[in-house]
Structures are given as structure tokens and as C-alpha cells.
Write a sequence for this structure.
């Protein structure tokens, strides 16, 4: 039930000093390229030649491999097996099991989908490991994202651990007065409301107080807000962003041209 | 139009959205703990849709998946589905479909149809139809029987989504009814949550006919896709 909410690790590296927007564009363009590229090995290539070395550049390789073991390998592995067994494509049967058959073509397809998913999760993990959420939000606000959006994201990240702790307390409290959370299906379904009710009502009642509190701190003010933190944005960042965007467009054009 | 949308985004709305997202995630985890065969991860989104309007609901859905993606990147690509769930919930509420129990079931059904339709292209394009969720076993079985990918994924969606989304709509309705009238009146659309008195049988019959027609049309479209 308790998950770590922020992956961010504070280190001093070139990747940490990049502008947050550059890192978002980097992650998104790697994902887009791996999905639209017509070349079969693109996703694996991006994963091994770009993302893994970037982890070393960002000095977060240990954390990256940890999350790879915990999240990336299970997720893409599961998808690989599902696809390999269940895709009904191809004729060259490698082996049969009940009504399922694994063919050469379905294995190839499964590998492609799995590596793409691995790139998607890895790119975001890398972004989250090297970028603090509030740094990201204040940079985006500076570029014109309405402050309310930043409030929603940051505030959710703060409320969520509290809410999870509260849920845990409610579950323990209801269990201690004999609520059945483990036996038959009907009993488990019936115990949903006594758990959800207190959690939801408790947190909704706080909404009004919170609204008054932030209104008193100028939430609805239309003046330009100043930031306490200075976020670096060099000409190299700008250059990198354009290169990445051009690469995505070139890949898209290649895909259309080749098909 | 834009002014109308702006009117839905009061400070109360902006404060409710993070709480709703946290409710989505916390209830989603409670359901996993109780080992129930549903997700129920959009109760907060539907709640915002009811009391703050469709656009606030849509925003809650989209941001919900974005925030969830921060520690579970697998849920990121599904944000358009959550967006449409919030939007349709809000539109249903504006049309007065969150005022008594059978209307809520109807809204749940409409939300389920939307979710099934919007998740199909994502599932087909990103995962080739077979995702990491348990319902993919049904998709896989349908694929083995020789159906096309799109129709297999759509059929699975139509089979699985209604149970989940009708329960979600009912729970959101129960929560709204449980809140005090004074608190609800502070949100932009308190009129959506007012309970209708008396039973209107004609409306119920019309609604049932509409549902039956939609189901028959759905099968018709599916068969057209399959052939």
C-alpha cells in the first residue's frame, strides 16, 4: 500500500542541471521515436545505447537498475508473455499448449511491443529520477502554464501519502471492530462502503477550509508571480530541444515514406 | 462558451481536484486489497464531474492519470480514457442523470460505453490489443477464435466496463448524497446533485428501450467489424 511517491534523487550531474522542459521533451521524443520508427530494433537500440548510458551520466544508475528490477522488467516481461502466447499471427509454430500456440511471428511481435513498453517506462523513470516535481512545475509555470495546474499536481503529491495513511488507519479500525475484509466475495464487496465512506467524507470536508486558506494567500490573484528558485535554461538546452523535435519529425517522415 | 467553462473553475473546484485524484488512487488501492474484480479508480473523477461540471471532470481524469503515472508509468498512456470518463459523467449530470438510482445506472452505462470505445485505439495501437490487465485473457480468447483485433478489444471492453463503471457511478452518487447540502452549495453545480422526488415510470421505460437499442446496435457494429 505504501509506494514511494517521488523517485527524485538529489545528485550533482549534467542531467540534473538540464532544464526540466528539455528532459520532458527528451523523454517524450525517445518514446515517440521508439513507437513510430519503422526499424525493428529501434526500441532496444534506444534502451541500450541511449537510456542506460544516460543513467550513468545522471549518476542514478543504481536507482535505475533497482526500478528496472522492480517495475520495468516485470511489466514488459508480462506483456512479452501475454503477446507471445495470445497473438494469433504467424504460421511457424514453435510449440503448442492447449489452444495457445507460440509462433516465430508472435515472438517477434511480442519482443517489439515489450521493448517499446520498456522504453516508455524507462524514459519516464529517468525523467523522474533526475527532476524534482516542484522544479518541473515552477519551470512550466514560468513558461505560461496556469498556476492552478501546478497547484493541482503538487498538492496531489502532498495529499496522497496522507490519504493512504488515513486509509490504512480506517482499514485497521474497521477490522478491529470485526469488519470482514478477507472471506467470501459478498462479504468483501459489502465491506467496501464502510472503508470508502469515512475516507471520502473526511477528506471532502477539508476542501472548504483549504479553499479559504489558499484564497487568503492570493491563489486567484492575476498578478505575475515571482519565483524563489532560479531554474537554469542555457542555449544548449534550447539547441537540444530543437534537435529532438527535428529527430521525431524525421522519424515520422521516414515511417510515412517507407510504408 | 469560454466564460461558461471558467465559471465552473472556482477555487473550490481547484481544491477539490487534488482531493478527487487522491480519492481515485486510494480507493483503487483499497479495491485491490479487498480483491474485488473491479477497478473503481475513477470515483473521484465522476464526483467532480457531477458537482463541478464536465470540463472540471475531464481535467480531473487527465491529471489523475498523469499524477498516477509519476509512480506507475504504465497508467500514463490511458489519460484520454480518464478524460472522457470525467467529461461524460459531467454531461450526464448536466442532463439530470444523477438524480435517482436508475438514472445513475444509465449514466454508469454511458460512461462504460465511452471508456470501452476510447480505450480501444490505445490498447490496439500501443499493445497490439493485449495489455497488462487481467481482462486481456478475454481479448486473447476472442483473438484465438479468429476475431479481428479491434472487434476483440471492443467486445472485451463492452463486457468488462459496465460492471465497473455502474458501480463507480452508484458509489459517486452515494457520496454526493452523503455530503451536507451546505457543502455542496459551495461548488459550481449544486443543482446536479438534487434528488428527484417520486418515480417517473414513463422515463424509466424510455431509458430501458434506449439501452436495449444501444446494445443491439453495438452487436450490429461489432459483427460488421468482425466480417
Amino acid at each position: 500500500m505504501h509506494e514511494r511517491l517521488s523517485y527524485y534523487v538529489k545528485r550533482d550531474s549534467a542531467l540534473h542541471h538540464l532544464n526540466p522542459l528539455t528532459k520532458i521533451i527528451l523523454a517524450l521524443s525517445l518514446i515517440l521515436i521508439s513507437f513510430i520508427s519503422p526499424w525493428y530494433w529501434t526500441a532496444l537500440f534506444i534502451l541500450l545505447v541511449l537510456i542506460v548510458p544516460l543513467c550513468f551520466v545522471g549518476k542514478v544508475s543504481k536507482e535505475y537498475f533497482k526500478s528496472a528490477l522492480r517495475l520495468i522488467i516485470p511489466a514488459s516481461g508480462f506483456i512479452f508473455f501475454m503477446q507471445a502466447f495470445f497473438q494469433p499471427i504467424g504460421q511457424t509454430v514453435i510449440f503448442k499448449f492447449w489452444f495457445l500456440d507460440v509462433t516465430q511471428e508472435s515472438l517477434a511481435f511480442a519482443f517489439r511491443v515489450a521493448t517499446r513498453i520498456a522504453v516508455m517506462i524507462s524514459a519516464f523513470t529517468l525523467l523522474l529520477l533526475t527532476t524534482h516535481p516542484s522544479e518541473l512545475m515552477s519551470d512550466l509555470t514560468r513558461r505560461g502554464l496556469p498556476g492552478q495546474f501546478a497547484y493541482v499536481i503538487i498538492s496531489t503529491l502532498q495529499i496522497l501519502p496522507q490519504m493512504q495513511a488515513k486509509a490504512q488507519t480506517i482499514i485497521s479500525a474497521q477490522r478491529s471492530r470485526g469488519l470482514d475484509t478477507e472471506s467470501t466475495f459478498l462479504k468483501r464487496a459489502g465491506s467496501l462502503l464502510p472503508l470508502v465512506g469515512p475516507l471520502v467524507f473526511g477528506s471532502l470536508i477539508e476542501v472548504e477550509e483549504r479553499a479559504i486558506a489558499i484564497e487568503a494567500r492570493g491563489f486567484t490573484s492575476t498578478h505575475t508571480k515571482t519565483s524563489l528558485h532560479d531554474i537554469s535554461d542555457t542555449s544548449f538546452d534550447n539547441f537540444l530541444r530543437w534537435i529532438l523535435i527535428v529527430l521525431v519529425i524525421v522519424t515520422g517522415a521516414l515511417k510515412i515514406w517507407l510504408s | 462558451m469560454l466564460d461558461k467553462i471558467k465559471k465552473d473553475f472556482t477555487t473550490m473546484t481547484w481544491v477539490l481536484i487534488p482531493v478527487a485524484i487522491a480519492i481515485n488512487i486510494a480507493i483503487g488501492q483499497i479495491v485491490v486489497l479487498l480483491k474485488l474484480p473491479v477497478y473503481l479508480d475513477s470515483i473521484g473523477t465522476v464526483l467532480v464531474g457531477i458537482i463541478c461540471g464536465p470540463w472540471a471532470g475531464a481535467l480531473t481524469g487527465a491529471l489523475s492519470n498523469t499524477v498516477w503515472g509519476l509512480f506507475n508509468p504504465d497508467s500514463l498512456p490511458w489519460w484520454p480514457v480518464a478524460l472522457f470518463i470525467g467529461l461524460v459523467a459531467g454531461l450526464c449530470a448536466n442532463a439530470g442523470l444523477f438524480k435517482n438510482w436508475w438514472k445513475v445506472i444509465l449514466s454508469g452505462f454511458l460512461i462504460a460505453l465511452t471508456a470501452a470505445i476510447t480505450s480501444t485505439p490505445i490498447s490496439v495501437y500501443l499493445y497490439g490489443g493485449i495489455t497488462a490487465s487481467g481482462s486481456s485473457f478475454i481479448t486473447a480468447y476472442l483473438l484465438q477464435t479468429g476475431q479481428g483485433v479491434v472487434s476483440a478489444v471492443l467486445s472485451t471492453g463492452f463486457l468488462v466496463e459496465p460492471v465497473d463503471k455502474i458501480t463507480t457511478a452508484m458509489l459517486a452518487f452515494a457520496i454526493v448524497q452523503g455530503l451536507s447540502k451546505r457543502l455542496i452549495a459551495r461548488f459550481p453545480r449544486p443543482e446536479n446533485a438534487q434528488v428527484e422526488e417520486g418515480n417517473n415510470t414513463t422515463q424509466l421505460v424510455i431509458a430501458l428501450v434506449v439501452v436495449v437499442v444501444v446494445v443491439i446496435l453495438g452487436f450490429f457494429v461489432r459483427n460488421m467489424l468482425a466480417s
About this structure: Chain B has a mean pLDDT of 86.
